[in-house]
Every structure is written in C-alpha cells, then in structure tokens.
Design goal:
- This protein is mainly α.
- The chain folds into two domains: 55 residues, Pemi-like Protein 1, Chain: D, CATH 2.10.260; 47 residues, no CATH class.
- The protein contains six helices and two strands, in the order H-E-E-H-H-H-H-H.
- A two-stranded antiparallel ribbon has the order 1-2.
Length: 130
C-alpha cells in the first residue's frame, strides 16, 4: 500500500506508480465509491462509456428526441449590447459565470427560466434581473 495525504481542500495526489499502472492522465475522470470502510477510485474508460451508450433503447431515444424537437425553443443570438449588459449584471450580482444567459433572458423579455441553479437565479432576481 502507498500512503497519500488529504489536503485542506480534501484533494489527494494519486501516486505516480498507480497513475502509470492504470494509465491515468490529467483530465481523466474517475468514479468514486465506498465499500465498507474503503474509498474506491475507478478510472472511467471511453470504451465503457460507449458501451453504455450502445445499451440505450433506440425507440425511447428516438421518442425523446422527437419530443424535444416538438418544443417551442427559440435560440437567442448574443450581440454587443448583450455583452455590455452581461458585464453590468456580473458587477451587480457578483456572479460572472452565467451573466450572459441572464442578459439574453432580459434582452428578449423571457419570463420563464428552467434551471437547476436556483442560487444564482435568486441572485439575479434580487437585482431586478428576472
């Protein structure tokens, strides 16, 4: 067994011997699980991901795509004004990563937002950007 230390950000370094043996590279993704009192790290291999895709029910996938295409979705094109507005939103909300979306929503007078990011959405709402 090889020992490694947990940093104050709860990160660990995978020792070189293990990285080389398992051919783990920067950017590789790992599955993490718990087994009894052990932490298990397992590299996700591309062929495993492709194998999972091959198990998708073709009829169900076709129906899902068909339903998606039936939605009334409008693609929004950003322009220079959008980016200027996004900058103002970022300054006032102190949130930068999604300000372009908020600017597009405001510019196009969109009243419904579907998101899982309720925290950021609430920040924008507090600043009258809903």
């Amino acid at each position: 067994m090889i020992e490694t230390t947990v940093t104050r950000k709860f990160q660990i370094t995978i020792p070189k011997v293990i990285r080389e043996k398992l051919k783990i590279k920067v950017g590789d993704r790992l599955l993490i699980s718990i087994q009894d009192d052990k932490i298990i790290l397992k590299p996700i291999r591309e062929h495993e991901t492709l194998a999972k895709l091959a198990k998708i029910n073709v009829n169900a996938a076709y129906e899902a795509v068909n339903q998606y295409l039936n939605l009334s979705i409008k693609l929004l094109d950003p322009n220079r004004e959008t980016f200027i507005y996004a900058k103002e939103i970022a300054i006032h909300s102190k949130t930068t990563y999604d300000s372009i979306h908020a600017a597009l929503i405001a510019q196009n007078k969109i009243h419904t937002i579907i998101t899982e990011d309720l925290k950021t959405c609430a920040k924008y709402s507090q600043h009258g950007l809903n």
